[in-house]
Design brief:
Number of strands: 7
Number of helices: 7
Largest sheet: 7 strands, mixed
Distance between the termini: 6 Å
Length: about 190
C-alpha cells in the first residue's frame, strides 16, 4: 500500500508572503501546479486554519502562522490528516515539511529526516509541537548574506524575492515531486 503523505509548507503571512523566508510556500504553490488538474486549488481551511488542497494522492497544506510559530498548526493539521486515513494507512503516514534553507545555494533542494534543526526556528517549533516525532524536511536554498550578523540575516530572509529568485525556487518543484513520489511508492 502506498504511503499517504501530507506536504506542509512554512513561511510568513503578508506582508512577508513573498520573501525569501517564505520560499517553502512558493515551492508548495509550484508543486500544486505540477500536480495538475487532479489536485484541487488551495482553499481556506477552518480547522486547522491555513490553506489546504486534498487530492487523491497528496494533501498539501500551507501554515498561516509566522515562520517561527509553525509548530502548532503543522502538528494539528498532521494529526487531523492521520485521523482521516484508514487504520491500515495510519502507521505509514508521512509528514513532509517544505521550508527555506539559508545555508544552501538558491534553488538547491535538500532532504533531511531527524537530526538538528541547524538554527531554523520554524523547524525547531514543529519538532517541539510533534513531541520529537520524526518528519521529512525538504529545504529549498535561499542563499546567505555575506554577513553573519543576526540583523543582516533577518533583513536578508525578510527581503522580497526578485522574479529570478522566485523562478529558481519554483524550479525545485520537479525534484520535490520526484522525491515524494519515491517516498509514496516505498510504502
Amino acid at each position: 500500500m502506498p504511503t499517504r503523505i501530507l506536504i506542509a509548507s512554512i513561511g510568513n503571512p503578508p506582508p512577508h508572503a513573498l520573501t525569501l523566508h517564505s520560499a517553502g510556500h512558493v515551492l508548495s504553490h509550484a508543486l500544486l501546479a505540477l500536480l495538475g488538474s487532479d489536485q484541487p486549488a488551495f482553499a481556506p481551511s477552518a480547522s486547522p486554519r491555513g490553506l489546504l488542497s486534498s487530492g487523491p494522492t497528496y494533501t498539501l497544506y500551507q501554515s498561516p502562522s509566522q515562520m517561527n510559530a509553525s509548530g502548532t498548526p503543522i502538528a494539528a493539521t498532521y494529526r487531523a490528516f492521520v485521523r482521516t486515513l484508514d487504520p491500515a494507512e495510519r502507521s505509514s503516514a508521512t509528514l513532509v515539511v517544505l521550508h527555506d534553507e539559508l545555508e544552501s545555494p538558491l534553488g538547491k533542494i535538500k532532504v533531511k529526516v531527524g537530526g538538528s534543526a541547524r538554527g531554523h526556528n520554524g523547524i525547531k517549533d514543529i519538532g517541539r509541537a510533534l513531541g520529537g516525532a520524526e518528519f521529512v524536511r525538504i529545504g529549498v536554498g535561499i542563499g546567505r548574506p555575506a554577513s553573519r550578523d543576526s540583523r543582516d540575516v533577518g533583513d536578508f530572509v525578510l527581503r522580497k524575492m526578485t522574479a529570478g529568485e522566485m523562478a529558481r525556487v519554483r524550479d525545485g518543484a520537479g525534484e520535490v515531486l520526484k522525491l515524494v513520489e519515491r517516498m509514496r511508492a516505498a510504502g
